[in-house]
Amino acid sequence: MIKPSMAIRAALGLAIVAALAACDRTPTLYQPGQYKGAPVVAPQDSPRFGGDKAKLDAALNTRTELQNEYSRTEKK
Amino acid sequence: MARMKFLCDVSRCIECNGCVTACKNANETPWGVNRRRVVTLNDGVPGERSISVACMHCSDAPCQAVCPVDCFVTTADGVVLHDKDLCIGCGYCFYACPFGAPQFPSTGAFGLRGKMDKCTFCSGGPGKGSEEEQFKKYGQNRIAQGKLPLCAEMCSTKALLAGDGDVVAGIYRERATVRAKGADVWGWGTAYGTDKQPEAKPAAAKPEAKK
Fold first, then answer.
1. Number of C-alpha atoms within 13 angstroms, CB side, residue B10?
2. Does the CA dihedral B124-B125-B130-B136 come out positive or negative?
3. CB-based contact (8 Å) between B83 and chain A?
4. How confident is the model at residue B93 (pLDDT cuts 50, 70, 90)?
5. Beta carbon pairs, A and B, within 8 Å
6. Nearest CA to CA, how far is B200 from chain A (Å)?
7. CA B164, CA B161: separation in Å to the nearest integer?
8. How far is Cα B104 from Cα B112, in angstroms, rounded to an integer?
9. What is the interface pTM, i.e. ipTM, of the complex?
10. Model pTM?
11. What are the Cα distances from residue B138, in Å, to A46, B123, B144, B170?
């Protein structure tokens, strides 16, 4: 025979599982593939980078890091 | 994979509007269209905060979800762009956007709306065309030149940061660590300030007027 306390614990456990499941990421409303416009030209396909994504990322990260005055003014 | 993001450090923003001017100058947006603007909260009150706002290039962009002609696209770098050739200027995106980013130039009489215009993270727009044609439609494409948006690069106090979200977060984390210590380093209060207003200095006792 199941004791009432066990039933309460089981119900509580189920409630916790349900609550945690509800914490999952909300579904994305926009579904990929809906876009009907002109194709996007990737920035790395510009003459300067010639399709090299790593080179583009490195250039952008260098610029981003220049915004950090701590790295510019203090030698670590 | 990089995800391009803006971050405005409200503790540093001095409301100079340099970012607004830089954006307008770089992209030559028409009169009445401000892709970026500075909003000040509690203006004139001690502890006021200013924040530079533009399109935040949301991961799950509401403008994209509501667009009836599906003219929005998220690029591989996480930049939200829209095709002006498809846009019908309906204004749904304006209502959906929590930041008020979509802008509509008035064309003709009676306040007729033109096609939507918004921040492109200085990465041009979709489609191919002559450089001049693309510039007229979307503005500069600085990302293709390995440069960041001009608003962030022009920011005098480096309040406005732009770039890969991970790198930007790293820079901001370092600032927050320098600003505060201990448990105060992390959290909302560090990032956006607290409710505590600085105590007003007691007014200097005025010398009594001689009778």
1. 18
2. negative
3. yes
4. very high
5. 106
6. 32
7. 10
8. 9
9. 0.78
10. 0.76
11. 17, 8, 14, 30
Contact A48, B146 (CB under 8 A): yes
Nearest CA to B47 among B9, B7, B10, B99?
B10
Is the torsion defined by CA of B159, B173, B177, B198 positive or negative?
positive
* Contacting B residues, span 171-200, partner chain A, CB-CB under 8 Å: 171, 174-175, 178
> Which tokens hold the place of A5?
């306390």
- Segment among A28-42, B39-53, B61-75 with least mean pLDDT: A28-42
pLDDT of B127 reads: 87
- The verdict on a CB contact (< 8 Å) between A40 and B167 is no
* Residue in chain A nearest B172 by alpha carbon: A68
Cβ-Cβ contacts under 8 Å, A65 against chain B:
167, 171
CA distance B52 to B101: 11
Structure tokens that stand for B93 in this block:
């995106």
Q: How many residues does chain A have?
A: 76
B115's CB contacts (< 8 A; 6+ apart) are B84, B87, B88, B89, B104, B105
